[in-house]
């Protein structure tokens, strides 16, 4: 298995997941729809929660899919299937 390719795929998917999580945090909590204001620390924590969650999910999904692809290619080489 190519560990570099797996880590690259996982990190790229983590960036995509972080972007999606950041976007969700901005869409989810529109200040004009909220009647009260939270302290800045809590607003920042709220945005980070979705961003980090998206990055972790993206890393796990990307790494898992690339690992499955690598294992399938290895199995196909062993069986002589091309």
From TrEMBL:
<keyword id="KW-0812">Transmembrane</keyword>
<keyword id="KW-0472">Membrane</keyword>
<protein>
    <submittedName>
        <fullName>Uncharacterized protein</fullName>
    </submittedName>
</protein>
<feature type="transmembrane region" description="Helical">
    <location>
        <begin position="47"/>
        <end position="68"/>
    </location>
</feature>
<keyword id="KW-1133">Transmembrane helix</keyword>
């Amino acid at each position: 298995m190519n560990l570099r390719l797996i880590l690259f795929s996982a990190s790229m998917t983590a960036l995509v997941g972080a972007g999606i999580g950041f976007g969700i945090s901005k869409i989810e909590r529109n200040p004009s729809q909220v009647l009260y204001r939270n302290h800045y620390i809590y607003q920042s924590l709220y945005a980070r929660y979705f961003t980090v969650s998206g990055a972790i999910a993206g890393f796990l999904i990307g790494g898992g899919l690339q690992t499955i692809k690598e294992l399938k290619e290895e199995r196909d080489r062993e069986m002589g299937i091309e």
